[in-house]
Amino acid sequence: MGGSLSFPEVDLKDKVAIVTGGNAGIGYETAKGIAKLGARTIIACRSEEKATAAIERMKAEIIATGSDQHNIEFMKLDLSSFNSTKEFVVSFKEKQLPLHILINNAAVGSVPLTMTEDGYEAHFQINHLSHFLLTLELLPVMLDTAQSCKDCRIVIVSSTAHKSGVFDPQNMNGEVSYSRLLFYCHSKLYNVMHAFALQRRLKESDITVSVLHPGIIKTELFDKGFSESSVASTAWGIGKFLLGPIMRDAFQGAATTINCAVNPELNTKECHYYDSCKIVSSIPLSMNTDLQEQLWDISVTNVKAWLSPEIVEKYCSAQKIGLEETTPETQTTRANPHCTDSTEEESTTTKNESTTKDKSTTKEELATKNER
Questions:
Q1: pLDDT tens digit string along 283-331?
Q2: Is Oxidoreductase among this UniProt entry's keywords (predicted)?
């Protein structure tokens, strides 16, 4: 797992790529690698200050290799906000650019039970729902692009942690119980399920969807761990020590992502789960078509107010892809989640604040974790 990985040095000149969370960690190395291959690369993240510093560093590192390919720019995207996600899409469409590569990389982990301004558990919204919304709203641009280039890619960065995830529609926001480690795992499971359900809806297109585990990476997300008690903290420390010899740096962690985005041999129009640049099996639960469609329906229900009507009509019905309509007994919905007073939308509220105040995470603290 810790061995050297590589990807083909293809020419991405005149291509456009978006990398969420491209200002740090795996996302940083992914964005830099894509840019070095010649693509106009858009780093989508919350902090302009951090993105600007990252872009300057990327350009210097690329130039140091003798390359002059460093067309990199920042666009604001706060995945803890559906409004911000939709605003990003509007701003991107105003540029009238094609879109060849979309890399859903950004993720949050090790977060106490925290509700976003939209009223969703942080892992659920940032790692899944907002990327779900982003991807669907960008599909018209990608479909137009694919008509001419015949090869567009959507790459979703999941994790081997998805193997510990479960799909429980009654507890997707921590209504019943909460563990920050398990909710990270759940969100990574949703990533895999989303990828396969999305590819079914794109089966007649020239868009290939891939989902992957980048490896065990030496990033801030890993270093901070997921400890919730002194015992868990000790166990996490031992785990990091034992995993050290097989851990990858962020550059190697980005290799599988970049390979999925650019390797001509992967232009298959079929979704696969990758680890170490190879197709491997995700857990059987993630491959259950009925559960994938239940997750899709739940996701649509929760972001529908931000979806364009044509997107809802074309992609949000299981019947349109030849499947029987899924009607789960329980879907996750919020009580009037789209009617929040504007003054309330400025803050992030921790569920059961009166009893879990010591575990709360502010929006600013959450933003520092909203990157891979």
A1: 999 999 999 999 999 999 999 999 999 999 998 765 555 565 444 343 3
A2: yes
- Indicate the SS3 state at residue 219: coil
The SS3 assignment for 283 reads: coil
| CA distances, 147 to each of 142, 198, 267, 298 (Å) | 9, 18, 14, 30
How far is it, in rounded angstroms, from Cα 31 to Cα 370? 16
Burial class, 5, CB count within 10 angstroms (exposed 0-12 / middle 13-18 / buried 19+): buried
- Is the separation of the CB atoms in 255 and 155 below 8 Å? no
Helices (H), the chain: 25-36, 48-64, 82-94, 122, 130-149, 180-201, 220-224, 230-243, 250-262, 289-303, 309-315, 353-356, 363-369
In a domain, 2, yes or no: no
Question: What residue type is assigned to position 331 of the chain?
Answer: Q
Q: What is the extent of the structural domain holding 66?
A: 16-369
Asked whether 75 and 45 are in contact (CB, 8 A), the reply is no
CATH code of 320's domain = 3.40.50.720
Look at residue 130 and tell me if it is in a domain. Answer: yes
Tokens of 364: 């600013």
* Catalytic residue (choose from 184, 190, 274, 315): 184
Q: What is the DSSP string of 61-103?
A: HHHHTT-----EEEEE--TT-HHHHHHHHHHHHHTT----EEE
Asked if residue 3 is part of any domain, the answer here is: no
Angle at the Cα of 89 from the Cα atoms of 68 and 304, rounded to 5 degrees: 150
Residue-wise pLDDT for 38-86, tens only, equals 999 999 999 999 999 999 999 999 999 999 989 999 999 999 999 999 9
184 has catalytic annotation: yes
Residue 335 has φ and ψ, to the nearest 5°, of -70, 105
- 335 has a pLDDT exceeding 60: no
Number of domains, the chain: 1
* 136 contacts 311 by C-beta, under 8 angstroms: yes
Q: Tell me whether residue 136 is in a domain.
A: yes
